[in-house]
Amino acid sequence: MLRNMVTSIIMEERIETTVIKAKAVRPSVEKMITLGKKGDLAARRQAASYLMTNEAVTKLFDTVAPRFGDRNGGYTRIVRTAWRKGDGAEKAFIELLGSEQVIDEKRQKRAEIRAKRAEENRKAMEHADAEAQAQKDMAANEAEGKTHGSDEKE
Q: What is the CATH number of the domain that holds 7?
């Protein structure tokens, strides 16, 4: 469980869990970041043996560890949030320091995607409404043509 949580924290930079689990996983995350700061082959192999995916190892050594180059420990923050409804356990976010920028970028990307989807849906609805209106107009013209044709025959 701890290995999965460490991998998730490195990949996502922020996860929500219980306070007890967050306190338990903090030393492992800090050790992985320290290995990432060393940057040698032995440290990379130790991190690869603990982390679950190669992407996590790559991200640890390329982006996460250099961010903490001048900092000696204290790479994570635990923020208590609320009580879980089912069993009343206290929940918390555990996040890497400096992850606010990454999280804000993700939020902006999601907002852009949502806005783009909404614009596409709006255009599709306008197009569908225009087609429906055109069909109504054609049906009205056909019906009007039939009534004019019946008037002329009499």
A: 3.90.1030.10
